[in-house]
Amino acid sequence: MPSNTLILMNFRLLPFPLNVYGQTLALECEPDDAQAALLHFGLFDAAAVEPSDYCLAQLRAQALLQSFLLPAPASVLEWGFGSGALARSLGALGYRVVALSNTPEELRHVTTVSHDRAVGDVQFHCAEFSQWQSAERFDILVLEQSAQYLDPLALLTRARELLRPGGQLLIVDEFLLDDQRRAPEPRPLLAHFLQLAERCGMVLEKQLQLGNEVAPGFKLFQELLHKHRAALGAALKIDEVTVDALSAALDTLHGKFVDGRLGYTLLDLRCGPRSEHEVVYGSIDSFTDDEIKPVFESSFDALFDPAVWHWKYGNGRGRAVCARIDGLLVGHYGGAPRDIRFFGEPDKAIQICDVMVMPEYRSFANRDTLFFKTAATFLEQHIGNAAGHLLGFGFPNKRVLQMAQKLGLYETTDSFVELHYAPLTEPILTEFVVAPFALDDVGSREKVDALWEQMAHDLRAQIVGVRDHAYLLYRYCSHPLWATGGYECVALRRRDSGVVSALAILKNHEGGRLLMDIIGPLDDIPAQLRALLVYLSESGARLCCRITSGQAHHFTLPGCEHRDIGIEIPCNIWTRGPQVDELSGAWWLTTGDMDFL
């Protein structure tokens, strides 16, 4: 590779696979080609079939983007400046430009180039988009193929902060266009992105689909990869397997563009007028315990426990959308992810919890309320065919559920039933013996996981949250109640062999014991319940359990009382995912799945 290209940009210092992209184009372009470092897609016309057309296609893409900009002189903020070509071009046209990147090598590169090619009023900075501070409000915010690396909510909230009223947010990037089939996709669904943009005060001015013009570039770039694979290996220290994997990924990407699942979209959004008491949205990392405490306590009439809150949401576990008005936190819609088996297949769900709005803003009447907007935003970001979590579930009160159904957010799939077992009046001999079990002992992992796999096999025609050793350690042993003896784990051993056939988790509750979870083969549950009744008869404690109605037959003993406790299990219907009739009666949920016990 020509030495002067390496002086301009050391692609080895760029993140993978951007380093391969830039290095490949630098190898293909002429040594004195100023466009060798462009790091974005190109737009190809029907006649472009040669690899040599690639750099021209990139120039065509940049020219199209520039044609959508508000006229100069205007102030421009660019996030993800890459080679700096767009910023320098805009500076030459009379724009005042501030360009940001979080990649030090990109700053080093543009600083080197700028000594020789300084044009107009252009400033380059190495900074994170979310952390960069400026008192100025810009006329234009540009993101050329860099929006996909930002959380959509954070991007749109920052755009609202950084743009003047009427300012332009110009995005060109990959978006998901079709989410009909289950396939998690990191790129945002365009329809959801536009709905979120509207909630954040942005107005769509223009929209242009460019996928058909981008798609040919994937095949052309494959040719370049194979043409320069030896030089790429030497320059970037990548092996043949990596190159082949990238080539296969390009094939997949090309297919998604051709069949319309993905698109390359140009969005021209404008910052709408600011209103008094405007709502500003945030995520799980945008508030403190001190801020969430009054929202929690006014919503649930209970004391806020920071230890329980961190058990539920801390260490990156939680997800949330929050809302502020005049700087004060007034709403929260949260969720706790769960690994599940979805009819026998591994997948992910998210448990909706801590849906809260301060009393003065509490309304469920229509789609212009805080409840609807935080709920819809959360569901769009986290649940559905293309999201990180296929399903949502929760335990809302009847009022919230009815309003969510009316607004088209939820539908019901099942309900909780509470089973109360009569205490034994005389001793009975059971086939199981109950004994303490050290769940928090590392040596218990193999036994617990084996029991879980037996249970999962029995529930392969249902939906169940994973109950392996790692989950039980988190759910019970790391819960603040564990240290105070709030939970008890017992093993149910076969009387004849001493083999552990199941584990049960019990909790003191209303003068008796509540069965939180039982892990083991399903056929033995009735006999194991009788063994638990014998065990509890020694202390005179009564036993009850909560289970989804569709699974209650596993827990029904002669004479037990079924109580409707008014808790229904909803599913998300706002975003595309499994149909309600597929989920109806299929969930295995116990008391242990509830976030507040």
Structure description:
With 597 residues, the protein is of the alpha/beta class. The chain has 2 domains: 3-270, Rossmann fold, CATH 3.40.50.150; 419-593, Aminopeptidase (3-Layer(aba) Sandwich). Helix content is 34%, strand content 28%. The chain contains 20 helices and 21 strands. The strands form 3 sheets. The chain has a 7-stranded mixed β-sheet with strand order 3-2-1-4-5-7-6, with helices on both faces. Strands 8, 9, 10, 11, 12, 15 and 21 form a 7-stranded mixed β-sheet that branches. Helix 19 links the parallel strand 18 (512-519) and strand 19 (543-548). The longest helix is centred in the middle third of the chain and has 19 residues, at 240-258. It is elongated and about 95 Å long. The chain starts with a helix and ends in a 9-residue tail after the last strand.
Q: Please state how the strands of the largest beta sheet are arranged side by side.
A: 3-2-1-4-5-7-6
Q: How many strands, which pairing sense, and closed or not: the largest β-sheet?
A: 7 strands, mixed
**Which class do the helix and strand fractions yield?**
alpha/beta
Mean pLDDT: 92
CATH H-level name of the largest domain... which superfamily? Vaccinia Virus protein VP39
Shape: elongated
Helix content: 25-40%
CATH architecture descriptor text of the largest domain? 3-Layer(aba) Sandwich
Kindly provide the radius of gyration, computed on alpha-carbon positions and rounded to a whole number of angstroms: 29 Å
End-to-end distance: 63 Å
Short summary:
The chain is of the alpha/beta class and about 600 residues long.
